[in-house]
Amino acid sequence: MLAGRAFVRGRLQSVELGISEDGMILSVGKDRSDAPRHDVGEGVILPSATDLHVHFREPGGPEGMESIATGTTQAAIGGVGLVGEMPNTEPPVTDVEHLREKEDRVRGSAVVDVLLYASPTRPRALDRLATRAGAFKLYLSPTTGIDTPPDRAALGPLLARLAELGLPVAVHAEDPTRFSAASEAKDPVTWDSTRPPVAERAAIEHLLSVAPPSLRLHLAHVTETESVDRLRAAGVSFEATPHHLLLSERSRSDALTKVNPPLRSEKARRALWECFLRGEIPCVASDHAPHSLAAKERPFPLAPSGMPGTETLLPLLLPSVRSGILALPTLVAAACDRPARWLGQPQGRLAPGHRANLLVVDFRQRSRIDARKLHAPCGWTAFEGWEAIFPREHYFHGQKIVDDGEFVGRPTGVVVRPEFAPRPR
Ligand SMILES: [Zn+2]
Prior knowledge:
Blueprint (H helix, E strand, L loop, with lengths): L1 E7 L2 E9 L5 E5 L8 E10 L1 E6 L13 H11 L1 E6 L10 H11 L6 E6 L7 H5 L4 E5 L12 H14 L3 E4 L15 H7 L2 H14 L6 E3 L5 H10 L2 E4 L1 H5 L19 H12 L5 E2 L8 H4 L16 H10 L5 H15 L15 E4 L5 E2 L18 E2 L4 E4 L2 E5 L2 E2 L18
Parallel strand pairs: 1-4, 5-6, 6-7, 7-8, 8-9, 9-10, 10-11, 11-12
Antiparallel strand pairs: 1-2, 2-3, 4-13, 13-16, 14-15, 16-17, 17-18
Helix pairs in contact: 6-7
The chain binds zinc ion (ZN).
């Protein structure tokens, strides 16, 4: 049983949290069992985060760059108890055989739970995939491992089919017909102009014009306020990443901050951050996508896009709560509650019937991000030197997996599916 100040029903209050043998929250309030009592003292108890957008490069990634084991360990340390892992590994997850192979890799190596996305690029594989996958990820522009996005006319029928299948569908929305030649980019500023905001706007407009209302749609990594307003008006779920909220195209001049969609101007970044502070952005997600330093140091047009981020997702945002800029309910909703709900997962709230995936955060324990102390095999971060607050403890299914900031868990993570999805046959 955990006792202390906890985020319950929208605010911090002193409670006791009763936890069942199988790792669920049994009671919130007075615990009448004789379970051992752990008082968290100066810490506050928050639900673990859900990072619904990560790329762990397994199978088929560069040797030693990232794996389900290393990726989920970073998640655990950063306070993430569930990750949504993307399908554009090598080979991509386009049928049940590849999905099963990835499920086998999760078992025995993941230290937090993993929901596996599938790629809906093979129409004949869709029905069987939908009985086993956790969600679909659709790319409207070519990406690593998936180079054939659906053409304009095919998108509507595909989305109608996906709506029937019932799984959540996340979309990378950039319209490649609005891109100019990537070879013209020489730094993050010109990268922004080769994949400009108009590409995002055009893709979102087209998507919203053909998506059936019953589709459980979510837009990945939105970068500007026009998208926020448009998606809010349409009632569609979406995310922003810490890098689009905190960094701009002028934060660095090298390819470490080369990402898709690109970092935007400082003015656009600030406006996006203001939206987040006002609670207008429903979810935050890392789009964790590590590459080796050697790959990132290639000439800019050849350097791959992506940066690591699941370990720093929550720790980068907690200092703004401490300083009073960001309301705790806004952060918990965006990092913990809404991502879990979109994926159909009983977690992200301190309430009976939810998984006992809990953090103890001591807001006095401030640190500076130092890549040497992070756990990403790539060994670098775009947030070097930034202030952070890492969780002091992380309980996963009721068991402590992070103690005093150190990982102490075991590979007990499982593959999860939305609770509203069709069950495997
Ligand atoms: Zn991604």
